[in-house]
């Protein structure tokens, strides 16, 4: 091997066509020297600059973010904030009777973290929370978590290229789960909420990631007289379990002689009613609208597992779980399950055979389940298409309505009295407990400001309807990425794979910011306009755009679909896996630098400087398949 001397060249001398004087450059056309202020960086191209990421939310999205950011981003400072006293997001906050996943358990887990020990086809909420806690422990994420910390304001600092965050936390950790608890509207219940003192502090981030979803801003219903009720008032999103750690069952152990009213017919009410029915003296379900109760998802698979028997929530046997230990068997089982979920996409398209068949099958099944009280069918079976509202299997709900200790009341509520509820037809019922399963604010109007460029609050930006870039970014709000933002959920298919791909997108964007030494990146207005136009064109082809009251449309009967992705689950995966970075505006990080290739640094890699592995590319070989013919 010939050793090449590394003598310092004379200033201005051309070396391989380049001048050694950084203040001079050579015009390639004329060969003449011209002045230049550009100086290359004194760092390696693969030397990651320090980058700070703040994640808001420690549910599924925040947990996935914690795993992927720490896995893929070097020189990372990561903090995950959550207002709750524990991890799990909605699965920590919700403790209401009957809480369960309304998607099959084996489809409601991370793609890379299988759980072969789910107890049933639709798992109860505590089991899902335990799964998430296990994932957090396995990937050692608690060291990044700051619980009982609520974001009060996020404001973009354009000069520094950072998000300035104002956070709030209880002064004493002894506040427990009550720290951010909302008091019930009646005075008797409000006295049970302990007083908590708070303090605020500031933090900052190069990249802000929010995984807070749209089903956490719950509200008390606007019903006259609610504050006058003398009994107990509960909201499904804030079920009072008292000091018990054993769950909701302990909280209702004394209700066997109680008269309980449940307001609502959404996903929560549909789970609460059958759970409470055998535990209470009498139950009244107040239902304003209509809804389709789905045939349990993947019913044929359940029947297959049950060897042909009729079952609505199959309990996995030890034999099943033993079979799942075979990786290939389990992979095929899960693939079949997720494939069938994704295949339901055709049923949400207007005029398809699958949509027509769904209507026929669902109606037949609902009539069959309401055989003891057939009159209920006239009030609950809708005229609007199947899936116009969010579908839920509703295991046991219609059967519970037919029990002798249950009244189904389709009349509108006029007011709440001190003793119970009065409807517009004059009927009055005396109640001991009122359960409000009345949903959430799904308008994407956050209860805290996120302020982007030029002082614009995202809540104003989202009027008259939210406008995003592929659901993950917002024009004028640099370095902010989100999961479960506007137009990100799916009407058919696996939700969690969407969350994973949205997190992957945010991580790739963060790596780009770090690698290319960017101060900021945010979507171009014309790209957002084009995505908005695509949304407007796509939804009229679907049942989601038909007339029905749905949180897909912010609780309205008609209007813009703001919750769902404009396409199938697989369609969303494809779009998010292949970013169009040309759709973004960029600003360079280093002061005075205008050359986009400053990030190339000093022309070397880290390993060359430390004499490490000098052939790292051999670890990244893409072996082409050899054609068989």
TrEMBL record:
<feature type="compositionally biased region" description="Polar residues">
    <location>
        <begin position="17"/>
        <end position="33"/>
    </location>
</feature>
<dbReference type="Pfam" id="PF13450">
    <property type="entry name" value="NAD_binding_8"/>
</dbReference>
<feature type="region of interest" description="Disordered">
    <location>
        <begin position="1"/>
        <end position="33"/>
    </location>
</feature>
<dbReference type="InterPro" id="IPR051209">
    <property type="entry name" value="FAD-bind_Monooxygenase_sf"/>
</dbReference>
<comment type="similarity">
    <text>Belongs to the FAD-binding monooxygenase family.</text>
</comment>
<protein>
    <submittedName>
        <fullName>FAD/NAD-binding domain-containing protein</fullName>
    </submittedName>
</protein>
<dbReference type="InterPro" id="IPR036188">
    <property type="entry name" value="FAD/NAD-bd_sf"/>
</dbReference>
């Amino acid at each position: 091997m010939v050793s090449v001397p590394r003598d310092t060249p004379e200033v201005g001398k051309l070396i391989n066509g380049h001048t050694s004087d950084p203040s001079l450059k050579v015009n390639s056309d004329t060969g003449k020297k011209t002045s230049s202020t550009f100086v290359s960086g004194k760092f390696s191209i693969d030397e990651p600059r320090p980058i700070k990421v703040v994640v808001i939310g420690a549910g599924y999205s925040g947990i996935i973010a914690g795993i992927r950011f720490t896995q893929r981003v070097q020189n990372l400072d990561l903090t995950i904030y959550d207002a709750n006293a524990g991890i799990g997001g909605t699965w920590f906050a919700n403790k209401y009777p009957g809480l369960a996943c309304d998607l099959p358990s084996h489809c409601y887990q991370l793609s890379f973290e299988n759980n072969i020990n789910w107890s049933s086809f639709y798992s109860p909420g505590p089991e899902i929370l335990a799964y998430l806690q296990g994932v957090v422990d396995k990937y050692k994420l608690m060291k990044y978590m700051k619980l009982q910390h609520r974001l009060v304001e996020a404001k973009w600092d354009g000069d520094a290229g950072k998000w300035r965050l104002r956070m709030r936390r209880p002064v004493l950790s002894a506040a427990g789960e009550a720290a951010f608890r909302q008091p019930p509207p009646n005075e008797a219940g409000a006295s049970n909420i302990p007083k908590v003192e708070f303090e605020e502090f500031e933090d900052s981030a190069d990249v802000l990631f929010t995984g807070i979803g749209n089903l956490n801003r719950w509200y008390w219903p606007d019903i006259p007289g609610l504050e006058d009720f003398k009994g107990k008032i509960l909201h499904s999103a804030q079920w009072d379990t008292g000091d018990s750690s054993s769950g909701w069952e302990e909280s209702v152990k004394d209700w066997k002689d109680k008269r309980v009213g449940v307001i609502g017919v959404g996903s929560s009410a549909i789970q609460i009613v059958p759970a409470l029915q055998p535990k209470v003296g009498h139950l009244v379900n107040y239902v304003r609208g209509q809804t389709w109760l789905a045939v349990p998802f993947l019913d044929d698979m359940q029947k297959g597992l049950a060897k042909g028997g009729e079952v609505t929530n199959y309990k996995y046997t030890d034999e099943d779980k033993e079979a799942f230990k075979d990786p290939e068997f389990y992979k095929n089982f899960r693939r079949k399950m997720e494939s069938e979920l994704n295949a339901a996409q055709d049923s949400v398209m207007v005029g398809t055979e699958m949509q027509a068949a769904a209507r026929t099958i669902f109606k037949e099944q609902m009539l069959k389940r309401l055989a003891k009280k057939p009159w209920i069918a006239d009030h609950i079976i809708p005229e609007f298409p199947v899936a116009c509202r969010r579908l839920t299997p509703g295991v046991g709900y219609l059967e519970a309505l037919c029990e002798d200790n249950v009244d189904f009341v389709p009349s509108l509520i006029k007011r709440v009295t001190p003793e119970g509820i009065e409807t517009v037809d004059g009927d009055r019922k005396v109640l001991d407990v009122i359960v409000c399963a009345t949903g959430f604010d799904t308008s994407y109007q956050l209860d805290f400001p996120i302020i982007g460029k030029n002082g614009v609050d995202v809540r104003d930006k989202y009027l008259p309807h939210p406008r995003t870039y592929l659901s993950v970014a917002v024009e004028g709000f640099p370095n902010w990425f989100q999961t479960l933002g506007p137009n990100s959920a799916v009407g058919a298919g696996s939700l969690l794979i969407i969350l994973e791909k949205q997190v992957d997108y945010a991580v790739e964007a963060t790596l780009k910011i770090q690698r290319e030494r960017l101060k900021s990146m945010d979507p171009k207005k014309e790209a957002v306009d084009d995505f908005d136009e695509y949304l407007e064109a796509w939804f009229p082809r679907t049942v989601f755009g038909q007339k029905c009251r749905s949180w897909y449309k912010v609780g309205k009967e008609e209007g813009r679909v703001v919750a769902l992705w404009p396409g199938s689950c697989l369609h969303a995966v494809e779009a998010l896996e292949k970013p169009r970075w040309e759709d973004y505006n960029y600003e360079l990080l280093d002061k005075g630098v205008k050359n986009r290739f400053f990030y190339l640094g000093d022309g070397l890699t880290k390993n060359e400087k430390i004499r490490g592995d000098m052939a790292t590319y051999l670890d990244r070989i893409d072996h082409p398949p050899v054609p068989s013919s």
